[in-house]
Write a structure and sequence with these properties.
Strand order of the largest sheet: 4-3-5-6-7-8-9-10
Number of helices: 7
CATH superfamily of the largest domain: Fructose-1,6-Bisphosphatase, subunit A, domain 1
CATH architecture of the largest domain: 2-Layer Sandwich
Structural class: alpha+beta
Oligomer: single chain
Largest sheet: 8 strands, mixed
Distance between the termini: 41 Å
């Protein structure tokens, strides 16, 4: 069983509290919109409040950046929180959404946790210590997260050719012709074995880390969407960059994550598209 730090332990508890709220409110909460095609529900807000309560109690001197609450505090240590990644799915009671929590010190990601709320899979990674997954059999509120039976190390897929690979993407800006992503999507369809769109950056990245798919790219996600999953991929032996092969991070709202062996081939194919790579 992995020896998780206090950071991972707190993030797991916080993710469990958020997951409990999501399951309780699924199909029972009205949907409003923060902007065009940008839904939000009470589950988003309540889950973020629950996460903040746990993390603030554990680390009162840390800063927090949440999708719903924005930036709170200033510190060398900053928590990046997406309390409900896949809100559009959630708003339609489509059971494919997640909690994503990461901690960075300066520019370095220290840990990340992703909870697949309905499938009951949890992922955790710590810088330099590997990536792990477990299945949660108990109610989230009764779970001792760091002592879950069945924590196992996960690794990326060994598939070495794009023509044999399954990729995943997202379409965050259909109203912005410069970021519509359809050209990249079409190019990948012609070269990869399959391309999927599942509506959650965190779960797409977890799938890369788990070896279930070989790659994921997207234009438009925020750091809180991909920080935890990006660390999962790196610690599972994969590679993460922006769409041009530069370091991915807060300054660039784009992400490419692969098993590493197909990475350069994917970058070359992305370069053939017209959608903005920044």
């Amino acid at each position: 069983m992995p020896a998780f730090s206090a950071y991972v332990s707190a993030a797991l508890r916080a993710a469990g509290a958020a997951g409990t709220i999501q399951r309780a409110l699924l199909g029972r909460t009205p949907v409003t919109y923060k902007g065009p095609q940008d839904p939000v529900t009470e589950a988003d807000r309540a889950a973020e409040r629950a996460i903040l309560e746990i993390l603030r109690e554990a680390f009162p001197g840390h800063a927090f950046i949440g999708e719903e609450g924005g930036c709170v505090g200033a510190s060398e240590y900053t928590w990046l929180i997406d309390p409900l990644d896949g809100t559009h799915n959630y708003a339609h009671a489509f059971p494919w959404f997640a909690v994503s929590i990461a901690l960075r010190r300066g520019a370095d990601l220290l840990c990340g946790v992703v909870l697949n709320t309905m499938l009951r899979e949890v992922y955790a990674a710590e810088r330099g210590a590997g990536a792990f997954a477990a299945t949660v059999e108990t109610p989230y509120e009764d779970t001792d997260w760091t002592r879950l039976p069945g924590w196992r190390r996960i690794r990326v897929s060994p598939i070495a050719r794009l023509q044999d690979a399954t990729l995943c993407t997202g379409f965050r800006h259909p109203f912005d012709p410069e970021r519509i992503n359809l050209d990249h999507f079409t190019n990948m369809l012609r070269r990869a074995a399959r391309v999927r769109e599942i509506g959650s950056a965190a779960l797409s990245l977890a799938a890369v880390a788990h070896g279930r798919i070989e790659g994921y790219w997207e234009i438009g996600p925020h750091e809180w969407d991909f920080a935890a999953g990006m660390l999962l991929v790196a610690e599972a032996g994969g590679r993460t960059t922006d769409l041009r092969g530069r370091p991915a991070g807060a300054g660039r709202r784009q992400i490419l994550a692969t098993n590493g062996t197909i990475h350069d081939e994917v970058i070359a194919l992305l370069a053939e598209g017209r959608s903005a790579l920044d």
